[in-house]
Amino acid sequence: MSIITNHVPTDELQALDSAHHMHPFSTNDELGKEGVRVITRANGVYLTDSEGEDILDAMAGLWCVNIGYGRDELADVAARQMRELPYYNTFFKTTHVPAIALAAKIAELAPGDLNHVFFAGGGSEANDTNIRLVRTYWAEKGQPDKNIIISRHNAYHGSSVGSASLGGMAGMHAQGGIPIPDVHHINQPDWWAEGGDLTPEEFGLTRARELEEAILELGEDRVAAFIAEPVQGAGGVIVAPDTYWPEIQRICDKYDILLIADEVICGFGRTGNWFGSETVGIKPHIMTIAKGLSSGYAPIGGSIVNDEIAKVIGGTEFNHGYTYSGHPVAAAVALENLRILEEEKIVDHVRDVTAPYLKEKWEALTDHPLVGEARIVGMMASIALTPDKASRAKFASEPGTVGYICRDCCFANNLIMRHVGDRMVISPPLIMTPAEIDEMFVRIHKSLDEAQAEITQQGLMKAAS
Ligand SMILES: Cc1ncc(COP(=O)(O)O)c(C=O)c1O
């Protein structure tokens, strides 16, 4: 057994954490002073911390635990696979059963001619693969200069140098010498924050046409691909107006631009279909997958590519791969996760029962004085906090100040709900029951009321001019 167990007192664990563990996307000095919460176990939609508190996880971890926590089947499969073949690679004329079976299963689930999978350890690695895939594809087709990838401001595609370059998070671009060359960003379709006087439909078209303008400006013979999340997740669950995606598809088709759908969050049931691309009605050439592929029980991701790309790439030595590409234990766990999603008809149940139930309650949140827009697709949803609904006003305070207060109220009420700037987002496990949804809303309402009181008390209920 490991030396550290769940029975060590919380303050000792916190002290060790602060001394040695660097947290992602955190100011570690502040965390150390505040003391982090130690999560010790989880079941269904609930986490338990080292003080024995049950916390409702409305984020499914990091948007990933689609089948919920505590499924023994995945643990059993992992143990069996570790005993049989804990590791082997697929680099040098070898393969193994879990990678074969998982690739075949993904090809069966993915729409159209998306039939080939290049495995990675997670979404960031998979998007790095995509950069090399699309550039190699066009080079092999005799167009090596067709290498610019267009993405969107406020997109999230991962945290490695390549994937963070594809992403459009200003804070990330400010550190570490990114973006890499030949990545171009256009504006996002966030009507609530940026739509001005346009109707959502007009705004959707305007933002989609920025892709066409960028292609014409950069040159059709220079643009390799457009990458986007069907529904932006980490950017704040931004749902594009209905006019947006058909126009994007038209533009990609017209200018022979590869369309990469980053399905890392949207894939595997999150939007009420197996893939977000089906929900928004697009036909990508490549899909990025991770998270819900294994419901987060093991780290695994990948790129699903269509027949044409696989054929072109297959004609050359693709000098790319990761030690853990198609890791047998992760692949076996993912396969078991997909079996559960499919056999228990979880995606159908989300579409027909859980998501409609959640939607009705979610949209009613706009009755709360602090809530402007409420958006939801399947089991991912967001609300925009605002000091004035009628004018869709932003707060005068530094963006994120109010969201942070609200998130802390949720946390104190044992509810994990994330803030992105001054938007609050959820992405709960897909297996959430109506009773658990009801319980979640009890905590959401209490947290919103407390946040409103706190914001008012701090004098923050003011609109930006
Ligand atoms: C849309 C999207 N793409 C890529 C990633 C990166 O995946 P990972 O953290 O597994 O590297 C994320 C992570 O949140 C994501 O939301």
Automatic annotation (TrEMBL):
Single Gene Ontology MF annotation: transaminase activity
Pfam families assigned to the protein according to its UniProt record, in alphabetical order: Aminotran_3
SUPFAM superfamilies: PLP-dependent transferases
Keyword Nucleotide-binding: no
Keywords, alphabetical: Aminotransferase, Pyridoxal phosphate, Transferase
Stored Gene3D superfamilies: Aspartate Aminotransferase, domain 1, Type I PLP-dependent aspartate aminotransferase-like (Major domain)
NCBIfam families: PRK07480.1
Family affiliation: Belongs to the class-III pyridoxal-phosphate-dependent aminotransferase family.
Protein name: Aspartate aminotransferase family protein
Species annotation: Ruegeria haliotis
